[in-house]
Amino acid sequence: MSHEKRTSADFFKQVFGRTVNVKLHNRTEYIGVLAALDGNMNLVLEQCEEYLEQKLINKYGQILLRGNNVLYISAKFNQKQQQEEEV
């Protein structure tokens, strides 16, 4: 892991086009591919699944999540993906 100073823009460049987990303030979670993002943190996810209390609620081809509802965004990478990003 690098100790360089990173910004949120660096994070979004790294996860754009990859699967992310987005949790909203109401505890709903969405897992999908990050397709778009704007300055207000509005997100578009593709191939998205909606979960509540770890139970699958619905599946969407594409969904827009309003940025002010987002609690956090996380991404999981395997070691190979992390090494590719560092090169």
UniProtKB/TrEMBL annotation:
Keyword Ribonucleoprotein applies: yes
Main location: cytoplasm
Gene Ontology biological process terms, A to Z: maturation of SSU-rRNA; mRNA splicing, via spliceosome; tRNA processing
Cellular compartments annotated: Cytoplasm; Nucleus
Domain of life assignment: Eukaryota
SUPFAM superfamilies tied to this protein: Sm-like ribonucleoproteins
GO cellular component, one term: sno(s)RNA-containing ribonucleoprotein complex
Signal peptide positions (record): none
Domain Sm span(s) in chain numbering: 7-79
Swiss-Prot/TrEMBL keywords: Cytoplasm, mRNA processing, mRNA splicing, Nucleus, Ribonucleoprotein, RNA-binding, rRNA processing, Spliceosome, tRNA processing
Pfam family, one: LSM
Name of the protein this chain belongs to: Sm domain-containing protein
